[in-house]
Amino acid sequence: MVRVLFVCLGNICRSPMAEGIMRHLVEQRKLSHAIEVDSAGTSHYHIGDEPHHGTMRILRHNGISLSHRGRQFGKIDQQNFDYLIAMDSQNRRDMQAVLGANEAEVRLMLDYIPNGFKGRDVPDPWYTGNFEEVYAMLYAACNALLDEIVATKLSA
């Protein structure tokens, strides 16, 4: 089983959106038996909260359902997940601080999109309100990540 964790600041906008998109893609490719997906936040601000209404709206608009409650990223996640993926550089630094010396294990979400996105942050729609732009970025990145997982972890 390959396990993927998406992480943002509050776990109510970007990371649950990525979780919903990735689960949807995994189901479409009939890989639910081989890939598990979750999300978390680096902060404690929204533990137990449902995703932001803008996140839920854009997911529903695209035919994706999501049942999720916010939780905080912790050191135990390092043991439980094969992929630790941060939405932005600050999230990555916060995750690395929790993990200690294992900083190479945390990748940026947009690094999975080819052609000029490497090193870029997923903008936080909590501040920008642009859930559509974020959805498009996350959809492209999730597709590319899933291709990588299939090619490197699931092919025999």
Brief synopsis:
The chain has 156 residues and is of the alpha/beta class. The protein has helices at 14-28, 53-61, 76-80, 89-99, 125-128, 131-154; strands spanning 2-8, 35-41, 83-86, 106-108. The chain has a 4-stranded parallel sheet, with helices on both faces.
**Mean pLDDT value:** 95
Shape: globular
CATH architecture type: 3-Layer(aba) Sandwich
Q: Which topology does CATH recognise? A: Rossmann fold
Outline the low-pLDDT stretches: none
Structural class, judged by helices and strands? Answer: alpha/beta
Radius of gyration: 14 Å
Q: What name goes with the CATH superfamily?
A: Response regulator
| Helical fraction | 40-55%
- Span between N and C termini? 14 Å
- Name the strands of the widest sheet in spatial order: 2-1-3-4
Total E-strand runs: 4
Keywords: Hydrolase, Protein phosphatase
Family: Belongs to the low molecular weight phosphotyrosine protein phosphatase family.
Enzyme class: hydrolase
Protein name: protein-tyrosine-phosphatase
